[in-house]
Task: structure prediction
Amino acid sequence: MPENEYDAIVVGARCAGSPTAMLLARKGYRVLMVDRARFPSDTISTHLIHPPGVVALKEWGLLDRVIATGCPGIGTYAFDFGSVTVTGAPGTDEAPLAYAPRRTVLDKLLVDAAAEAGAEVREGFTVTEIAFEDGRATAIRGHRKGEPVVTERARVVVGADGHHSLVARLAGSEQYNQKPPLQISYYTYVSGLPMDGRYEVHLRPGRGFAAWPTNDNLTVVIAGWPRSELAANRKDIEGNVAATLELVPDFAARFHAATRTTRFVGQSLANFMRKPFGAGWALVGDAGYTKDFITALGISDAFRDAELCATALDEALSGARPFEVAMADYHSERDRPSLPFYEFTAQLATLEPLSEDLEQLLTAVQSNQDAMDEFARVAGAVTSPAEFLSEQNIRRLLAAAGEPA
Ligand SMILES: Cc1cc2nc3c(=O)[nH]c(=O)nc-3n(C[C@H](O)[C@H](O)[C@H](O)COP(=O)(O)OP(=O)(O)OC[C@H]3O[C@@H](n4cnc5c(N)ncnc54)[C@H](O)[C@@H]3O)c2cc1C
Result:
């Protein structure tokens, strides 16, 4: 390897990039991670981390650091669909609680862990170009503000640069399973609205909102409507959020008695998967797979994919398996478990009323705490919706509630 070449350059240093850089550096690779942002810094995203993401933090030795920031655990998920409410525990023995650390806290902690592992970290560095030789990505070009453009070479360039990924665009990664943006939501942080370790979701036809606790005794409150109403509602976000919260008057009263500490910030996301590798490049996190945030899967998925991608890259860089073979496994191990969650997420994000079948099932589930916990584990990304909604499982749940299948 030429002296000035890195094993891997990771573009983007948040939930996907930092763990990928950290895991590769821990395996002894020479890693450069760059981000145009500086840390700590916020980004447009709420930050519920479901139990599988919590397990990743624990395995990486970072969960204690998250807890030490005063971030409260979340042991109950409550889904109120109007006609039916399902309240259960999403946790497992390995991770009994979910957590929602502020991105200012979480992303800084992840960047520091990558640096501690030995990755070189350049903050405030914008990548503007990827260099290709014979169709293979070999280098990045970029610069710090006001400084000259530099070129850095690597055996592999990893795009962890979010849903607008420059690496994906320049590498020509194909998109598939695309769905348009389905809903738009706006969030704020309030003090004086205790949640007692609960993640609460309230869904009504064409409207939805959720709330859960985070650092500094604050509560995140997020509310939204179909993307088709973006233009009509954008002039009065506050009024539309207030009207949405009014759908559950008790919650609206608690919200109005609390103190808002930030303005509303909102976004809407298109849904797609991208082929996450090609000659000399790889994609991880939202760069390779973006979905609506209504199911709060992005961070947990980014952690999972960082682990899968770093394992595959280790096999390729060490020569244990050909790059194409190792990365094709990464691709299928990402997509196989993701697809049922992707469809479930898109269905919820339409904000359409529950289908009759699902309403019947959830009504049956409501009478049985074990079954409600099962549903909470689907919402918590522990159990696949494909498993929960399998014919056999539906029959079992309906029979347990004494209803015909
Ligand atoms: C409103 C909203 C709410 C959400 N709520 C949740 C939630 O509760 N739970 C959850 O799990 N997920 C949530 N998500 C999804 C979550 O934000 C993403 O899945 C997650 O941030 C993906 O992490 P990432 O590291 O892949 O990308 P990002 O967090 O987007 O990070 C990409 C990084 O790349 C850097 N970058 C980009 N281009 C360049 C460049 N050319 N040069 C240098 N640096 C570059 C950026 O500066 C950025 O720091 C939400 C998203 C939104 C929009």
About this structure: The longest strand covers residues 150-159. The mean pLDDT is 97.
